[in-house]
């Protein structure tokens, strides 16, 4: 008998609806509070009972599947929706280290687009959960903005894959690693800017060498595609503070149409012959859709 197959993206109806189910459940619980503490407690108990019931069923299903079709483990783990439910019930087929390593592999193309990389040094177990120790490498040339961007992308990916991780520590690289090392002080500082990931499926329509403007959560962003990779920046020239609307690419150099300043679109928007930088915006595939990370205070 052939192993059963999981439905592909086209076979999953209203996928986005289920990905936001947690928010809707929380909204209903908050609404139940209007009936008083007793009503809120009953609503929370109902959710726990339902969750425990489905968790027990998932556990039996996973036991049966793993005996009959163990190769399905990777298929389940690769589906974001299934994996998230398995994580809730402690039934994910892969351990924390495997999931963190896979998460880092998934974000490496983005890090590489900014001239960076990350190494998993280890995972420690503590009373409050797991602590992931990372070390960044790269050639962002002392750009704190880019350093924070890379840290944000990695942290988002790791926490999505392993929510039981309580903290992420960035270890300073060796002093002799070369002049192009991303500054350790910029990386070690934890990200304090609340960020919302916004789906921008229109990004996939960019042609190679094309520059486009996109309104994301009320903020204008500039994005371009080079060699199959997409790079995004805030729509503001750091040299003259003007909009970059009308900017064109010359090779990998993005030039401001107002003042003519050039920026390396591939390497974190580094200024050509100057110290100014464009403000990079993380772009990752989340839930199968290209998305941008927009700081909430900006949006």
Keywords:
35% helix; 299 residues; GMP Synthetase, Chain A, domain 3; alpha+beta; four-stranded antiparallel β-sheet; Rieske_2Fe-2S_sf; Rieske Iron-sulfur Protein; 3 domains
Task: Please characterize this protein's 3D structure.
The chain is an alpha+beta fold and 299 residues long. It folds into 3 domains: 32-93; 96-173, 2-Layer Sandwich (GMP Synthetase, Chain A, domain 3), CATH 3.30.300.130; 195-295, Rieske Iron-sulfur Protein, CATH 2.102.10. 35% of the residues lie in helices and 25% in strands. It contains 8 helices and 14 strands. The chain has helices at residues 15-19, 21-32, 37-68, 72-78, 80-88, 96-113, 144-161, 184-188; strands spanning 116-126, 129-138, 165-170, 195-199, 211-216, 219-226, 229-234, 248-250, 253-255, 262-264, 270-271, 280-281, 283-286, 289-295. The protein has a 4-stranded antiparallel beta sheet. The chain has a 4-stranded antiparallel beta sheet with strand order 8-9-10-11, with no helix packed on it. A 3-stranded mixed beta sheet has the order 1-2-3. It is globular, with a radius of gyration of 22 Å. Residues 1-14 and 175-193 have low confidence and may be disordered.
